[in-house]
TrEMBL record:
InterPro entries: DNA-bd_dom_put_sf (IPR009061), HTH_17 (IPR041657), SinI_DNA-bd (IPR010093)
Source organism per UniProt: Ollibium composti
Chain segments annotated as transmembrane: none
Residues in Helix-turn-helix domain copies: 44-87
Protein name: Helix-turn-helix domain-containing protein
Length: 94
């Protein structure tokens, strides 16, 4: 009976065609690297995205967060900064 299952799995795997949408296009990934991620309708930036946006080190962005100048939210082990907080920080820093 197990040989019948393995043949069924083999036949199933042979009939599955790769999805062309699964292949990632490097230029599109490069464009979206600065795009904030979405969570419940809000947009959030990562530390790395903000460091690149502001042309500072990731450590400097962490300093902004830990000093309280920039408000961040913790999702698991990662920090995310809401787009509203980013815009407010940029207006105050001009």
């Amino acid at each position: 009976m197990s040989s019948q299952r393995s043949h069924a799995v083999t036949r199933l795997n042979k009939s599955v065609k790769p999805n062309p949408l699964d292949a990632s296009d490097p230029p599109e990934r490069a464009k979206s690297s600065l795009q904030p991620s979405r969570f419940r309708g809000e947009q959030f930036f990562t530390i790395k995205q903000l460091a690149k946006r502001w042309q500072v080190s990731e450590r400097q962005v962490h300093r902004f967060v830990h000093s309280g100048v920039l408000v961040a939210h913790k999702f698991g082990r990662s920090l995310r900064i809401a787009e509203d907080n980013v815009l407010l920080f940029e207006l105050r820093s001009r």
